[in-house]
Amino acid sequence: MLFICREMIAGFRHLFPRGRFRFVLLFLSLIAATISVSELLVLKFFATLILHEGELDSTSLMLAVIGFFIFFIVTRLSQFYQRNYRVKAFARSFRAAKKDRTAKEEKREWVMAFELTKILSLGTQLVAILLFFLFLNPWFALVNTLILLLVLQVVGNLFRKQIAIQVKLAALRGKKRAKPQKQYKARIKAAETGALSSGAGTLFLLGLLLFLNIDGQITAANTLVIFLGVRLQNSVVANTSRSLMRYAKSNSRTADDDDFE
């Protein structure tokens, strides 16, 4: 996990040397955290409506419905703004750096920038999810944090090895070009192994959640929200693993393909 942090900090400083643009990109990452919190709040409102519909008077029911739609709209608009504005922020930052780069070097930096900021956004989303779990059930949040740290350690080790693998593959370019199958297989296998480790952790957490619910330690509404939150967390970690491996690929060679969203 520490290796991931060091690599992301080094890449961030390299790609965005100007302080003002760093703050802009950090702000965009905070928006990503807002998106996660909003999505979980949407789930909370929805669970309240479904499980306590008969207990709410007409005014409370109306407020709950309005709250549901407001947070849903905020989630979608925040995601739209965050993903679109980062392109403009990249362009401004690269122009401000005033570095002489070839077309291939420039493309490589764009690939790295997309993956790095995506990883940063995913990281802030994980923090937001952890805090939300802490609010709902501290004991579950503690176990979830330990499982998450273990999974991220596995992903970090895969990331470290993938950088070394991609460096070796890049060194072959001047001698004997590696087959495309070998290039893609190495990256995809590492990415999906990280995603698989996240799935294993998720399975354990869902078992724990089921036990706590049966034991009466978590309400039905919070159980539903945490269940969907755990699924969201699994998706975030899996996407982080895939982005890290794409970052390792772009960081070790000139980018010749559009391998980013």
Give the SSE layout:
Blueprint: H1 2-15, H2 19-51, H3 58-97, H4 103-136, H5 138-171, H6 180-214, H7 220-251
Helix pairs in contact: 1-4, 2-3, 2-4, 2-7, 4-5, 4-7, 5-6, 5-7, 6-7
In short:
The chain is mainly alpha-helical and 261 residues long. The chain is 85% helix and 0% strand.
Overall pLDDT, averaged?
A: 79
Please state roughly what percent of the residues sit in beta strands, choosing from under 5%, 5-15%, 15-25%, 25-35%, 35-45% or over 45%: under 5%
Structural class: mainly alpha
Radius of gyration: 21 Å
Overall spatial form = globular
Q: Oligomeric form of this entry?
A: single chain
Distance between the termini: 24 Å
Low-confidence stretches: 253-261
What helical percentage do the residues reach? Answer: over 70%
Task: Tell me what you see in this structure.
With 261 residues, the protein is an all-alpha fold. Helices cover 85% and strands 0% of the residues. It has helices at 2-15, 19-51, 58-97, 103-136, 138-171, 180-214, 220-251. Helix 1 (2-15) packs across helix 4, helix 4 (103-136) packs antiparallel against helix 5 (138-171) and helix 5 packs parallel to helix 7 (220-251). The two termini are 24 Å apart. Mean pLDDT is 79; it is low at 253-261.
Supply the key terms.
single chain, mainly alpha, 261 residues
